[in-house]
TrEMBL record:
PANTHER family: BIFURCATING [FEFE] HYDROGENASE GAMMA SUBUNIT (PTHR43342:SF1), NADH-QUINONE OXIDOREDUCTASE, E SUBUNIT (PTHR43342). One of its GO terms (molecular function) is iron-sulfur cluster binding. This is NADH-quinone oxidoreductase subunit E. Keywords: Iron, Iron-sulfur, Metal-binding. The keyword Ubl conjugation does not apply. SUPFAM superfamilies: Thioredoxin-like (SSF52833). It holds the Pfam family 2Fe-2S_thioredx. Coiled coil: none annotated. It comes from Rhodoblastus sphagnicola. It comes from the Bacteria.
C-alpha cells in the first residue's frame, strides 16, 4: 500500500481518467483516490461528475453513503475494529468497551496518540474474532493486550510518517 500524498488535482484527474471507462466506474474511482491521497477531497466531486457525465449530487451521495470513504485528510492512523455478529459473539463489544475505558480513546469518533479506531461490519475472518484491520493486515482473536499493542504500533507508525 502506497503512503498517501498531498492532494494534487492533476494526479486526481489521471486517477479518474484511468478508471472512467470501466463499467460502473464511480466506486473504483473513489477507491483509487482514497488509496492515493488517504481521503476523497471535496474538490474531486466535480472532477468525477464531469468525467462520468453524472451530477455532483450522485457522486456526493455515493461518497457519503459508504462509511469507509473519508471526506477529509485523516488526522492519523486508523484501526478498523469488527463489530459484526460473529465478532460480537466472540466478545468484540466488551473488548471495545474495555479498550475505551483503559485508553480514553472513544471508538468511532475519537483519537488517542494520533490513532482512530472505527467500527466495521465484517472483515471475513469470523472464526477468529474479534478482528481488526490495520494497514491492510487482519489481526484475529484479539485480546485486550493485543488491541492495546496494535494501538501502540499504529501510534508509532503515525509518528514515523
Amino acid at each position: 500500500m502506497e503512503q498517501p500524498i498531498a492532494w494534487e488535482e492533476s494526479l486526481a484527474r489521471d486517477l479518474i481518467s484511468d478508471k472512467a471507462e470501466l463499467e460502473g466506474p464511480l466506486l473504483p474511482i473513489l477507491h483509487a483516490l482514497q488509496e492515493r491521497f488517504g481521503y476523497v477531497d471535496p474538490r474531486a466531486v466535480g472532477l468525477i461528475a464531469s468525467a462520468l457525465n453524472v451530477s455532483r449530487a450522485e457522486v456526493f451521495g455515493t461518497l457519503s453513503f459508504y462509511k469507509d470513504f473519508k471526506k477529509q485528510k485523516p488526522l492519523g492512523r486508523t484501526i478498523k475494529l469488527c463489530l459484526a455478529e460473529a465478532c460480537q459473539a466472540r466478545g468484540a463489544n466488551a473488548l471495545a468497551a474495555r479498550f475505551e475505558q483503559a485508553s480514553g480513546c472513544r471508538i468511532d469518533g475519537g483519537f488517542s496518540g494520533g490513532v482512530e479506531i472505527e467500527t466495521v461490519y465484517c472483515l471475513g475472518n469470523c472464526a477468529l474474532g474479534p478482528n481488526a484491520l490495520y494497514d491492510g493486515e487482519i489481526f484475529g482473536a484479539l485480546t485486550d493486550e493485543a488491541l492495546a499493542a496494535l494501538h501502540a504500533r499504529a501510534a508509532r507508525d503515525g509518528v514515523a510518517r
